[in-house]
Structures are given as C-alpha cells and as structure tokens.
Amino acid sequence: MALLCVLLWFLLVVTAHVTDAQRGPRSRLILTEASDYPVSWESRNTPSPQPGAGPEPGDRAPAFQVPTLDGKFSYDPAEGALKESLVIHAFTNKSGFLECLWSSESSLKSLVKGLPDRTQVLFLSLDDSAVSDALWMREQLDRAAAHSGRKEILTQLHFCPVPVFALGNWIPNVLYYWGCMGHNCGLSQAVFTSDAWKMPIIIKRLDARYDWLMGRWSAKTYQLADAGDGCKPSPSLGGAVAWVSEGNCSFFTKVQSMAKSNASGVLVYSLPGNPIQDMNCVDLQCFLPLGIPAAMVHQEVSVAQALR
Ligand SMILES: *[C@@H]1O[C@H](CO)[C@@H](O)[C@H](O)[C@H]1NC(C)=O
Ligand SMILES: *[C@@H]1O[C@H](CO)[C@@H](O)[C@H](O)[C@H]1NC(C)=O
Ligand SMILES: *[C@@H]1O[C@H](CO)[C@@H](O)[C@H](O)[C@H]1NC(C)=O
C-alpha cells in the first residue's frame, strides 16, 4: 500500500489594521485573529464537489506516471510497487511553514539521513511555478545529500515540474479533497490594513509554536508598533504587537524582551533575501516559558513605512 503524505491546508487569517497614521511619531497596526476557517476543501463527511472522482482513504492507489526532471516516474502496484513506500509531498511557496521547512538545513538533513530504504519520494508543486519549484527543491536536496555524504539517496527522490492541478490523474483529487489535521495544514497569513491604503496587504506567516512559547493569537484586535530589532525591552509598547527585524540577537531574546515591554505579541520580519525561519530556542532558554504569541513574516515595505 502506498503511503500518501498529503498536504492540504486551511486558511488562518490574522487581520491587521494600521491606524493612528497621523497621530504621533509612532503609528500602530491593529491585528485581529479571525477564527480558523476551512476554505474550499471539504471533508468526506460533507458533499464533495466531485463525488467518486478519486480514491478514498484506505483504497489501493491506482498506477500512475508523471514526468520528472530526470525522466518519467512510474508507480505500478502490479509491478512490485507495493513492496515499496511512496511519499508524495506537495510544495507551495504560499506557505510560510513550507518555505521554512525547505530552507532549513536541519530539516533537509533529517530527510536525507532518515529516509528509509525502499521508500520513494515524489515532490510536486501546487503552483504555476512548478518548474522552478522542482529545480529549487532538487537543488536544496542535492546540497543536503552532498553535505551528509548520502548522494545515493538522490535515486529515491523525484521532482515533478508539472503543477498538481495539471497532472491529469487521481493525485489532484486526493490533495485537494482529503482532509488534513493539525496546525500546519493551513496557509497562515497576516493581513494589514491602513486608513491610508485602498487594499489590505496580505502576507504569509509562520507561527512560532513550541513548548516554551505557547502564546496564541486571539480573536481580538491588536495594534502594531515598530520596535527595531527587539533585542532590548522598549518602554513604549503597552499592549501592541511588536514589529521587529530578525538579527542582532536570538528569537528567544526578542520575544522575551518584547514580553517585558508589555507587547501582546511579536511579528519578526526576515531581512531582504532571507527565508522565513524556525524561531526555536537554544539550550537553557528552552526551559523558560514565554506567554505571548510570535510569528515570522517577510518584510513588507509598506507596513514598515506606515509604522514610521
Ligand atoms: C518563496 O517566496 C519568497 C518571498 O515570499 C521568495 O523570496 C523566494 O524566492 C520564494 N522561493 C521559491 C522557491 O519560490
Ligand atoms: C543591529 O544593531 C545595530 C547597532 O545597534 C543597528 O544599527 C542595526 O540596525 C541592527 N540591525 C537590525 C537588523 O535591526
Ligand atoms: C507593563 O505592565 C505592568 C502592569 O500593567 C506595569 O507595571 C509595567 O510598568 C509595564 N512595563 C512596561 C515596560 O511598560
């Protein structure tokens, strides 16, 4: 039986609102966490848009072929594929979580070091950018395999340059219509609005959720305030979410000093050209729980300007 690793998502929205643009030197953003709500993917309990269009959980996966960067990949249960496992991973750069996963040396290393024998992995892209996504994923894993001295693993990895929606087999049905559990199914976003803007700015975000950092965004309105690099407590944040740059100190130090400044949360933005990263603690820091939520996003020039 093929093992299908299915990545679906729900949309989680943090709305933000820039106000006070004219009042005082420091303007504020307002963040509101809307409830999590699933978009367009229906579970099998609700009427599916295409009932019976694809396999159900537990069904034997039908044979298929897809083009890859290195030729054709064929899966055929009649030809011995049942003795192997197949993992299908679908990438989208619209997910902060997946961007972080694919940019992280340690996660790539654990994949190349920990992949069992007799397991094939098929990497797909959900987007129109499938060709460049496939090339990029292959490059990331080539490098990780070379660093780990496990180049032989590359024969088990297959990169498809055709977007999922254009595969023309059962895989899109499974990826779009099977449910996904757990918090990394979502396409988490931050939505910023300002009285000065006609349209909101919406960007992907990666929430930092660890044992030492259990804070959650709540369904209320927050303001946002620029707090520089966030490495030192700032006297002036009372209740606002801190907008801080990465760098100059650890993520832990930023969250801790912003909590001390009475921030209600922290949005760390990556410096230009840097990916969204894992915001975990190191060593002893990990034993000190902090109570506010934190997330990582890309730098957004208009937001930074609105905060000046
Ligand atoms: C993913 O998106 C970020 C910006 O959102 C961009 O800098 C990066 O190059 C993209 N990566 C890929 C593989 O498309
Ligand atoms: C890091 O600290 C230096 C010196 O205080 C400052 O000039 C710089 O802007 C800081 N970097 C970031 C990314 O905030
Ligand atoms: C944070 O809030 C507490 C309680 O309201 C207050 O005593 C403290 O002075 C505040 N700290 C800062 C840095 O504003």
From TrEMBL:
Gene3D superfamilies: 3.50.30.30. It comes from Ilyodon furcidens (goldbreast splitfin). This is PA domain-containing protein. It holds the Pfam family PA. Residues 40-63 are annotated as: Disordered. The keyword ATP-binding does not apply. Keywords: Signal. Residues 1-16 form the signal peptide. The keyword Cytoplasm does not apply. InterPro entries: N-glycanase, PA_domain. Residues 222-300 form the PA domain.
